[in-house]
């Protein structure tokens, strides 16, 4: 139901609460993404990073293009996931800031779009 004063449906606020509620994200990828190392990365994980929430996710090859080890952890085994969790717990503020930095540098359209257009030869 829409909020009568703002005209908002409340969906965006609910999603924001859902992403900012937990201290981070842990996720396993579908087997096809892991096996092909296609680099798949969840938009939900990008939202967690943008919220300053560290992400521990099964590596699909995204670690070839995104920085990992601080704020974002690409894991292949349960032991690697446990190590990532321990690292995050040892210094959550550091990993939270690193997560946000990764989101800004690699997913923010203000940063990404000019580089993409330049590579496509559309803009300088």
Q: Give the overall silhouette.
A: globular
Order of strands side by side in the largest beta sheet? 1-2-3
The number of helices is 6
- Based on helices, strands and strand pairing, what is the structural class? mainly alpha
- Percentage of residues in helical conformation: 40-55%
User: N-to-C terminal Cα separation, in Å?
Assistant: 44 Å
Using the CA coordinates, give the radius of gyration: 17 Å
Poorly predicted runs = 1-8
For the sheet with most strands, the description reads: 3 strands, parallel
Mean pLDDT across every amino acid position: 87
Task: Write down the secondary-structure element order.
Answer: HEHHEEHHH
Strand content: 5-15%
The structural domain count equals 1
Number of E-type strands: 3
Describe this structure as you would to a colleague.
The protein is mainly alpha-helical. The chain has one domain (23-119). Helices cover 52% and strands 9% of the residues. It has six helices and three strands; from the N terminus they run αβααββααα.
């Amino acid at each position: 139901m829409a909020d009568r004063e703002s005209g908002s449906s409340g969906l965006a606020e609910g999603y924001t609460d859902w992403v900012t509620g937990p201290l981070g994200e842990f996720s396993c990828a579908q087997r096809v993404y892991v096996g092909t190392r296609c680099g798949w990365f969840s938009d939900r994980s990008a939202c967690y990073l943008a919220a300053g929430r560290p992400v521990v996710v099964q590596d699909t090859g995204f670690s070839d293009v995104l920085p990992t080890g601080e704020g974002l952890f690409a894991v292949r085994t349960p032991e690697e996931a446990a190590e990532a969790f321990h690292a995050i717990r040892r210094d959550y503020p550091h990993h939270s800031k690193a997560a946000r930095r990764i989101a800004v540098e690699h997913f923010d359209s203000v940063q990404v779009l000019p580089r993409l257009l330049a590579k496509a030869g559309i803009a300088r």
